[in-house]
Amino acid sequence: MQLTKLNVIEAATSLGVSKSWLDKTRVYGGGPEYHKFGRRVLYDVNDLQNWATRNKRRHTSEPAPHAPVVAFAKAASDPESKK
Length: 83
Prior knowledge:
Elements: E1 5-6, H1 8-15, H2 19-28, E2 35-37, E3 40-44, H3 45-54, H4 70-77
Antiparallel strand pairs: 1-3, 2-3
């Protein structure tokens, strides 16, 4: 039997990102799709591979397909940005 689901720590290790980053992308968006079973979060190996492929870039000025909502939420709540 082949393991097809990874917990958050295993998924983070697989992608080369931190657990914290994956946690934040579940809140703000922009990360890979996941399954939620009660309090348990699992990532499908195929979803991780597909997400990594979709986010492949050739240069730094190339736009991301899924811009995270974080930048918009911060700008809207930052009183300094309204001056």
